[in-house]
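Re: export button greyed out
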Amino acid sequence: MTVAVVGASETTELGRIPHLSQTQLHADGAFNALADAGLTVKDIDGIATAGASPVDLTHYLGLEPRWIDGTSVGGCSFLIHVRHAVAALEAGYCETVLITHGESGRSGVGRGGGGGGAASFASQFELPYGPMGPTTLFGIGVLRYMKQYGMTHEQLASVAVAQREWAGMNPRAMYRDPITVDDVLESRVIAYPFHLLECCLVTDGGGALILTNAERAKDFPQPPVYILGSGESVESPMISQMADLTSSRNFRIAGRDAMEAAGIKHADVDHLMVYDAFAHLPIYGLEDLGFVERGEAGPFIEEGNTRPGGRLPLNTNGGGLSYTHTGMYGMFALQESVRQVRGQAPAQVDGVNVSVCLGVGGMFAAGACIVFGKELP
Amino acid sequence: MSKEGLRPRYAPTPTPDTEHFWEGTRNHKLLLQRCKDSGTVYFPPRAFCPENGSTNIEVFEASGKAKLISYTINNRQHPSFESPYAIAIVQLEEGPMMMSNIVDCEQTPEALVLDMPLEVTFEKVSDEITVPLFRPAGESS
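Workaround output, generated via the alternate export path:
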């Protein structure tokens, strides 16, 4: 496949533009390039940018991307985006990529507008109301979820209980002693409706992965773990602006793309990891991936389907709630998927051929999904 | 919600695309934008409709009526708030969601009932910034 540039434009003005913020400069260039290509924002399904976050641009422009690149390594970042976009387009990850630049280098208007600067949307429209990081914001949609679907506090607590069972089988888990639903509900309220045991740990640690071509994979000492499919998306830098507080658009897009690419059905999945910064993440993940219908994940976990011996082993390292959570836990979810497919996990599930790993970024700002397999299709 | 001994709440830095909103709240008006092509009402402010990219948009004053969509109640100490306090998401009558605080109301799960009707009120933070807050509808401040 050959990839071509079909739209290109600079901002309408150059030089001194004190009446536009940095984000507005990104948008101005983007709209001019779209006009040049005869496209609208709805045609774009891949976004790459540097200086600003692709999350900010996605929400600001009203995109719904299936491929993102926020590689930000200086002025040549946009050249790198082009290269990455060629790979993504050739792989079929997306069909139409937008690469934007905007910088209020002289006027400094809204500079640092991405990633939480004083002029960012999050700073203007969330920070004044007293949020104190993820404990106060990540779960802000859960009361709405509970009202909509009738999920109980006990069902939310059962997420932590099931994962502690897995952690009990894992010598590297930080917390291993069994807990009950009552223990969870009697633990300190951190930010209602979340109790201490429904919030992730804060730990130190790290991890790494090495990938190579499938043809070479059998030449290494460890059994290969193949990547069968993947998906990604971003939605909004503000949780208050999620399209639906009871479901993650990112989870739905990333999960759909990953499972379609892998050519698998839900019944093919032997093992599941869902990034659990807080106890509601596995609830959202199970539903957004389509393992259960909307509103059914609470009862599904409470009934024991995800605990040891259950039919869908979930977060088998103990998860962010009991195993470890450094801050960017996604690496640990990947590591557990790899261990389970290799057959080397401390709490090994029998016969794992396919493992699905779903990750979150920010507070439902980003999402990504990887399907791992023991065999190539 | 700001009391003696507490720092004023965070005062945002407006940008050219949001200036009209903050000028509105200074004058105790809650301003939204509407796309004249698609009819989409949206927030936060932008110079184009996030639904279709159209710049054929207008600014209008919202009714100030809203309902309580969801919240958390923070128990930790915050320099500008007396704990516990709720961080809420409200839905304006016109459709858009926004984060805010619920004032003139106990900050408890019993008092903060989802879907309760709310109305906008305003709190001056600085000469430039006044933030929109919400209180139970029909009650005096």
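Strands of chain B lie at 31-35, 41-42, 57-61, 65-74, 85-92, 97-100, 117-124, 130-136. The button fix ships in the next patch.
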